[in-house]
Prior knowledge:
The chain is of the alpha/beta class. The protein has helices at residues 51-64, 102-109, 120-132, 187-191, 193-204, 210-218, 222-246, 256-260, 263-275, 294-304, and strands at residues 16-22, 26-33, 38-44, 73-78, 81-82, 88-90, 114-119, 137-142, 146-152, 155-157, 250-254, 285-287. It is built from 10 helices and 12 strands.
Amino acid sequence: MPAPRDRQPGAASAPGCLGIDVGGTKVAFRAERADGRIEESSFTWGPHRDADRDLADLATHLKEFPGAADVRAVGVAMPATVGPDERITAWPSRPAWTGLALGPALRALFPGARVAWADDGDLGALAEADAADCPNLLYVGVGTGIGGGLVLNGALCPGPARGSFEIGHLVIDRDGPECVCGRHGCLQATASGPATLAHATALRGTPVTFDALRRGLGEQRPWAVAALDRTARALAAAIAGVGELVHPERAVLGGGFAGGIPALLDCVTAHLAALSRPGHPTPTPTPARLGGLSSLRGAVLLARQL
């Protein structure tokens, strides 16, 4: 576990805010104390199991994380779909969580603290808009899945009360690959990290890992270049479509996969430029200022508002 940052010798613990980014493969924590101290940690989930065992792992790591002690507010970034009754209705990456009463489960972990949660893509957008001081911003996070969020006039759109901004399930090709949601042609099914690696594997004829893709791109291997181009083309189509509807001032590309493949941004930019039309330029994408930490920082912002 990493040592706390900015800890002053003998500093007293002061109640503060805790942000948690719950991912399909990893959970990250960031605590911001009222006295200015910042502490971060993370752990990797085990194989897909029942929700009770996952929650037990979460509780164990929280006990070991000093920043989780004596917090007044907790914000949680969740990739799952949560209904108005606080129950998870869908989470393809960890299907055993479907039906879990998320609200009571989280509040039980933090008795006495105020707890709120929101979609991880929405919170990523909120954090990137705050970092860029941009009130109209589209965020697309490319990782194990594809999340995203839209901030218009400084507020999340459509807003927590109306659901999350599911750009990953925007259908871009009805004849495209099957998505984990059951449909065909979702952006996530074509352009997520695993989807890109699967396409590269099909082109190469042998399994392609993330590191192998990076090496292949560095060596300009045709299978690697073609796989990345397919992903970039799909992302550009989705960003251009959103741009036609709501005209964000800025499009931000983030997420762990995108952050680890710098060439993706240039490729998306080229495809977006080709999609512009007279009088209606497409937004030029920029890298996420917060890198792979956008959703985690957004979770902290959510906690601050409680």
